[in-house]
Amino acid sequence: SDLELILASRDERLFGFDELWQVPAILTEENLLTIWNLADKVPISSEASEYLRSIVREFGACIRADKSQTTGLTVETGLCDGCHFNTAKSVCNKVLIPLSVRAAKDLNRYSKAAAWLVGAQEVSIEIVKSLAPLVFWHRTRFVRDELERSPFYGNAYVFTQHLVELASSRYAQRSVAIELIEKLKHGIEVKDALEQ
Predict the structure, then answer these.
(1) N or C end of the chain, less CB within 10 A?
(2) How far apart are CA 132 and CA 110, in angstroms?
(3) pLDDT classification of 41: cutoffs 50, 70, 90
(4) For residues 191 and 184, is the Cβ–Cβ distance under 8 A?
(5) Cα 95 to Cα 163: distance, rounded to the nearest angstrom
(6) Contacting residues for 58 by C-beta, under 8 A, at least 6 apart
(7) Helix %, strand %, coil % for the chain, to 5?
């Protein structure tokens, strides 16, 4: 088999790459760095930036404890018991290990790269939303009972897509408040702001 041939070949760490098995170069290092720089210059819209931060927070937020620091009490051992966020529409009660800052940085970087690749003028919410499951699914641990139920049956990627949809719905519910806060931050007068 192919794997047998690969394992029987010389170790490239000791002897360098075998010319018969080496993958040909597609880009020069200079071209690759140029592409990275061009992708990094694609702006992210303020809405997409707020959305990105919001969904990352949904995967780690807990009103009771910092999930990244707790060792004893977890979602599976009763952390969510009695919490008003412990609902089917919440994300926090389905995530054991929150996303890291690196996950947010990677989602930001990959969103810019995807926008550059498709020729978009800026990163949109749609681009961030489409990439989030790809970036998140392997970077966290989920509540086993939630992950293994229908229709996910243990498929962490499909479950992550579901959680991103839940987080997106919660973001949409807060969009009026987010828009109001943005206007106030920029000194735009909003009549009856407190009533909204």
Answers:
(1) N
(2) 9
(3) very high
(4) no
(5) 9
(6) 91, 92, 163, 166, 167, 170, 171
(7) 55, 0, 45
Euclidean distance between CA atoms 176 and 173, whole angstroms: 7
Closest CA to 167 of 193, 190, 140, 194: 140
- Neighbouring CB atoms inside 10 A of 61's CB total 16
Residue 126: which H helix or E strand, with range?
A: helix 125-136
Under DSSP, is residue 49 helix (H, G, I), strand (E, B) or coil? helix
Amino acid sitting at position 150: S
Q: Model pTM?
A: 0.78
Mean pLDDT, residues 100-116: 94
What span, in angstroms and rounded, lies between the C-alpha atoms of 43 and 122? 5
More confident call, 10 vs 127? 127
Q: Which two tokens stand for residue 192?
A: 């009856």
Report, as an integer, the average pLDDT of 51-60. Answer: 91
CA distances from 71 to 74, 105, 138 (A): 7, 26, 21
